[in-house]
Specification:
It is a single chain. The longest helix is centred in the first third of the chain and has 13 residues. It is built from eleven helices and eleven strands. It is globular and about 50 Å long. The protein is of the alpha+beta class. Strands 2-4-3-10-7-9-8-5 form an eight-stranded antiparallel β-barrel, surrounded by four helices.
């Protein structure tokens, strides 16, 4: 069946989408006040974007707060004729966060948050070796996901607008059993009402709200996913960067805050920094590589792998991708 091609969003819709990417649970009133629009306009334009899957809200656990979680990046080479099937199988796994088809059409990049060593060993020592279409793979542990990851708005908002959308981070709490139920519910719908969250967690809406406000201090990261093509972004790439060890923290933090960077993590392996870049076109991507990456003193090498297709992002399968 032929897939429907969606047109780019207009400027107002893009700004509303960017506001909801910066603050996934922001109220319609807050979005309208920050962007200088009427609340009615925001509701009229945003609600259909969530309804048709253009915008999808979810939540991602921060590995630092879940010691049993193993964040892993895989580069999988497989038979080109089976790459869509393998990507679809990986996307259906509940522990995959990102699944992208790369380069020449024979490689898949996967970010997984695996629940413990048994899950990791089952994947690497049983599942992948037992898949005949998989030719080879490399695995890289994510040592640190930099703070700006999952906190991206495409450079469509001013600093003042972003400040108006992001409340001060609360103190980080101790995790309670109720929190795991809230996180599970938010993974399915990051904008679920407090009443719905309370039903799922067996508590009151007030308690659900208080716990969620405390969790967003760093335990979890709320995220709104969007098809980047609808924001006018046509060039995506993964950068596997080697940085001299003493410059890793500075390079990671600087890149993670750049408006053309969606994700930054320090990794194990030959390259020690993984960056997902998103630019308006190839020329903009070139200038990012030359002007931004090239200005970092301790960068030694950079392998650029274009993203051909995004199958799953932030734990959500993209509509029409399978």
């Amino acid at each position: 069946m032929e897939k429907v091609r969606h047109l780019e969003l207009d400027e107002t819709d893009r700004r509303i989408a960017a506001a909801l990417m910066a603050s996934p649970r922001a109220s319609w009133r807050t979005v309208s006040q920050v962007l200088g629009l009427s609340e009615r306009t925001v509701v009229r334009r945003a609600a259909p974007l969530f309804h048709d899957g253009t915008l999808r809200a979810t939540v991602v656990r921060h590995p630092v707060w879940f010691p049993g979680l193993i964040p892993l990046a895989l580069r999988i080479r497989c038979r080109p004729s089976r790459i869509r099937a393998i990507a679809a199988t990986l996307a259906r796994r509940p522990d995959t966060v990102w699944v992208d088809v790369l380069g020449g059409g024979d490689e898949i990049s996967v970010i997984l948050f695996l629940d413990g060593p048994d899950a990791r060993n089952t994947l690497l020592l049983r599942d992948l070796p037992a898949t005949p279409e998989v030719e080879s793979w490399t695995s890289h542990v994510l040592l640190r996901v930099f703070p700006a990851a999952f906190d991206w708005s495409g450079g469509l908002l001013t600093d003042a607008e972003l400040s108006g959308l992001r409340p001060p981070a609360p103190a980080r709490p101790a995790l309670l059993p109720i929190d795991h139920e809230l996180i599970a519910a938010l993974t399915e719908d990051g904008r679920a009402s407090y009443a719905d969250l309370a039903r799922r967690a067996g508590t009151t809406p007030l308690t659900a709200r208080r716990r969620l406000e405390s969790l967003t201090g760093g335990v979890i990261r709320l995220a709104t996913e969007v098809d980047l093509a609808r924001l006018g972004i046509r060039a995506e790439a993964l950068l596997w960067i080697t940085v001299a060890p003493g410059g890793l923290e500075e390079a990671g933090r600087r890149l993670s805050r750049h408006p053309q960077v969606r994700f930054t993590a320090a990794t194990t392996g030959p390259a020690n920094l993984l960056v997902a870049a998103a630019a308006a076109d190839l020329d903009a991507l070139y200038h990012f590589l030359n002007d931004t990456l090239g200005a970092l003193d301790r960068v030694v090498t950079a392998e650029v792998t274009p993203i051909l297709a995004g199958v799953k992002r932030t734990g959500l399968v993209r509509p029409g991708s399978l």
